Amino acid sequence: MEMISRPWFALVLYGVYMALAFGWRSLRQRRATGSTGFRGVSGPPGSLPWLGGVLFAVAMLLGLAAPVAELAGWIGPLAEPGSLVVGFGAVAILAGILGTLWSQGAMGASWRIGVSEAERTSLVTRGPFAVVRNPIFSFMMLAALGMALILPNAAALASFAALVTAIELQVRAVEEPYLRRAHGEAYAAYCAKVGRFLPGLGLARR
């Protein structure tokens, strides 16, 4: 990066992602439904659902810490990325931002962060959900990978690892069991033909 340093560039992209995917989306959800969509961490402390929620928060904080710590000189890159790698990372983050917003929009009023057993939202299978069951999470992981490519430091790599682990726990221990209870056979049929995070991968048996 000639005009702007890699850490500043990553920090700006991360700020844009968080502002749009969480701030703007929550405000839009509140205007449309009266609720921000935040449902909090599931499960009692120490449980797998709880651990997934905590790791998700840790991943978000580490994602912010990665550029800030490098700017402050507290940590440095484990390897110096070339311009091609930085460019690919930027494309991955931008694709992650656009894909996340697209997927959130496809969910409409059913969009939530977390799960409430008292709620019964519609089963969304249109748009990106026709290709993978969890496109928001897929695009989030893509954006986190892009961040790690631009800033290959310990915090960014730990953020990516924590996010992947958190998403796996959230999907397998919280969201999929909830959707099975809520939608029964319709969700089972959906899982049998649509992959979990990538097309064709993670199909479930009927």
From TrEMBL:
Q: Which PANTHER family match?
A: BLL3993 PROTEIN
Where is this protein found? Endomembrane system
Membrane topology, record value: Multi-pass membrane protein
Single GO cellular component term: endomembrane system
The primary site where this protein sits is membrane
Q: Which keywords does UniProt give here? A: Membrane, Methyltransferase, Transferase, Transmembrane, Transmembrane helix
Superkingdom of the organism of origin: Bacteria
- Name-wise, this protein is Isoprenylcysteine carboxyl methyltransferase
**Keyword Transcription assigned:** no
Transmembrane residues, as ranges?
6-27, 48-69, 81-102, 136-167
- Name the Gene3D superfamilies for this protein: 1.20.120.1630
Give a GO biological-process term: methylation
